[in-house]
Amino acid sequence: MPCWGHLRSVLKLLSRRKRVLASSEGSSLRRCLSTVDLVALGVGSTLGAGVYVLAGEVAKTISGPSIVLSFLIAAVVSALAGLCYAEFGARVPLAGSAYLYSYVTVGELWAFLAGWNLLLSYVIGTASVARAWSATFDQLLGEKMGRFLGAHAAMSSVGLAEHPDAFAAGLVVLLAGLLSFGVKESTMVNKAFTALNVLVLLFVTVSGFIKGDMSNWRLREDDLPQAAAHEAGAFGVGGFMPYGFTGTLAAASTCFYAFVGFDCIATTGEEVRDPQRSIPMGIILSLLICFLAYFGVSAALTLMMPYYLLDTTSPLPVAFEHIGWSAAKYAVAVGSLCALSTSLLGSMLPMPRILYAMARDGLLFKPLAKVSHRQCPVVATLVSGGVAALLALLFDLKALVDTMSIGTLLAYSMVAGCVLLTRDTPAGKVPAVQLWWDHLVQPPPHATPRSSAVVVWALTAVGMSGNDGWALQELAGLPLACEQLAKVPCLPFLPLLSISINTVLVAQLSAAAWLRYLLWMAVGFLIYFGYGIWHSTESHWPEGTGPQELPGSRAREVALEPCGTALCPSAPGQ
């Protein structure tokens, strides 16, 4: 039947997978980033201004002092996604993050959706952080800029901001210019701001433990205010968990978003000197540092003053005034601006790399893949910076933040799903649908490396670690050749848990956010089916062949072969 033949042809186009090169010597980007650069990038992107605001708001209204446990739960949930990114970042050390991982695993259409979701997240994130930077700076000036622009350039249209924020737009353009000089120069600036931010947060934490009072974690219900302005029980029942364990869990859902940002490390895969080692270490260490910072600041806040007195907009300055250290508010202001600067840089850095990767593969317009003599995706950097600057200048971004969260959570879920797919893989092939579930429903008659791996990781998860854990793998018949490669333990449970939690979180978002998201995806589909599907570089390889040798390089196609409990890239002939 001709119609069936045409349908099969279209499905084959949508499901074609990217052939990955084993060597990056033919890459146009420069490998210059170290592990320290990646850790600073991840911490700077994740540890934004939220650490100066979020803890006060959540502790006062949702969790009380048990916010420290909320951050612990949120950190564990984020680590589930982080492990998936770490494994893929080591296996496929190229630019593109979730877009690339989906392309090599489940096919072109899913890859485009992942990349389009990431672009949505980063462009809205960049514009919103730029506006927050502008608002913080304006507050230090006594809100002179806001009053002037509100009086002379007010806007009243639906969806637009109250007035244009020229300062925020100019800041985005300035950083886009910095990024166009090269990633190494940008990361040097990022490291300086990140170090200063971490020092301020360390000062806050130490101050809280010095001046704090443990009795603030043991308040009785009689100690809480019962004024006419507040209903009885408005601040819970006191104690460490005044709102109960349900409040602690609800706070963990909010605190989860405080850890979004580490995935920007994966977008630099093509610019890291030793990606197999640096990317996993960068992701895990940055999440650990961010957790310690959030844990320390939230503990300090709730120790310095009773949780019900915390200020929801400026908790740290108010807390320092409460203990008699009013001058510390200047250190907090400096730290807040540094955090916003690194968060802004961390949002802007991945955008052009996603654009570059998609344009290089032919799914977006080719000029976006142009690289400067400094080996930087300059056109993609300037275009993405211009779009983010326009959003920051004109639009009301509060309504767009939920839409950004949809894109981020769906990208996380796609990476977790790709880990499930690639772990159950015959040599040289990546299956489209077969999952670990097949083996759980119908277990193999004899032990296999995969079934043994589940037993091994279950044992190590309950207390066996170090050399004993590796010895167990050896006893199970698992080769240790890929010991250096990051692996997600407890397959399939951790990736499935990550996907489940992401689904619950995304289901909480409003219908308006979903409508805006669907509009963004409709634009993406128009671009893909009108341009990308016809210009994809994967349509240029003759049937049954891989990528050809690049001029002046020794690039070869990666054969995906099982190696222990993970898949390792190995070039044919090696």
Percent helix? 55-70%
Strand content: under 5%
Question: How does the major sheet shape up?
Answer: 2 strands, antiparallel
Average pLDDT, to the nearest integer?
76
Q: pLDDT under 50 segments (min length 5)?
A: 227-232, 425-484, 542-574
| Continuous helix count | 21
What is the string of SSEs from the N terminus onward? HHHHHHHHHHHHHHHHHHHHHEE
Instruction: Give the number of DSSP strands.
Output: 2
Structural class: mainly alpha
Radius of gyration: 25 Å
Q: What's the overall geometry?
A: globular
End-to-end separation: 44 Å
Strand order of the largest sheet: 1-2
> In terms of quaternary structure, what is this?
single chain
Subcellular location: Cell membrane
Pfam families: AA_permease_2 (PF13520), AA_permease_C (PF13906)
Membrane topology: Multi-pass membrane protein
Protein name: Cationic amino acid transporter 2-like
Structure description:
The chain is built from 21 helices and 2 strands. It is mainly alpha-helical. The protein has a two-stranded antiparallel ribbon with strand order 1-2. The protein starts with a helix and ends with a strand. Keywords: Amino-acid transport, Cell membrane, Glycoprotein, Membrane, Transmembrane, Transmembrane helix, Transport. It is a multi-pass membrane protein. It is found in: Cell membrane. One of its GO terms (biological process) is L-arginine import across plasma membrane.
